Amino acid sequence: MTVSNALANTESREILIFTLGAEEYGIDILKVQEIRGYDAVTRIAHAPEFVKGVINLRGAIVPIVDLRLKFGLGEPTYNEFTVVIILNVRKRVVGIVVDGVSDVLRLDEGQTRAAPEFGAAVKADYIEGLGTIGDRMLILVDIEALMSSEEMALFDTL
Fold it and tell me: Record's superkingdom (predicted)?
C-alpha cells in the first residue's frame, strides 16, 4: 500500500489529533467543521452498533459514529473529555465520537510513512499512513475513505 495522493502531493499539512484509548489518531483538519462535547443522541432502529444515532445540529440531522466501537477498541466510556468531531465529508455532515482531542499539528512530508501491509485478515483501507513527531506515533486516518466505506453505509457509493 502506498501513501495516498493527498498525503504524497503536499509538503506539509495540518492534522487534528484525537485519542481512542491509548492510541493517537490524526485526520486532515480541512475535513473538520467543529468540535463539540458529547451529548445524548437519538438512536435509529436497526443501525449498526457503532452508529450511535443522530443529532439535530442547527436544523441538520447528523449521523454520529462512535470510532471506539467501529475500530473494535472495547466499550466506550463517555465522560467530560469525550467529544464529537463534526466533519464535512463528500458535502455531507457526519459526527465521530472520540475519547478526546489533543492537538492540531503540522506534519511535513518527511514525518509521514506509508501504512504497513496487514494482509486480508486486517481491514485497514482507511489508514492513510503513520505520522511521527519525536517519539509520538500517529495513525493517520483517511476519514473520507472510512466514512464512505461500504460497511459504514452512510453515503451512496460513487
Answer: Bacteria
- In Å, what is the CA distance from 146 to each residue of 59, 109, 134, 135? 25, 22, 27, 27
Task: Give mean pLDDT, residues 23-37.
Answer: 95
Q: Is 153 a domain residue?
A: no
Confidence band for 147, pLDDT divided at 50, 70 and 90 = confident
Strand pairing class (83-89; 136-141): unpaired
What's the grid cell of residue 70?
467501529
Question: 93: alpha, beta or left, given left = phi > 0 and alpha = psi -120 to 50?
Answer: beta
Which residue type occupies 96? I
Number of domains in the chain: 1
**Reduced to 3 states, what is the DSSP secondary structure of residue 50?**
coil
**CATH number where 110 lies:** 2.40.50.180
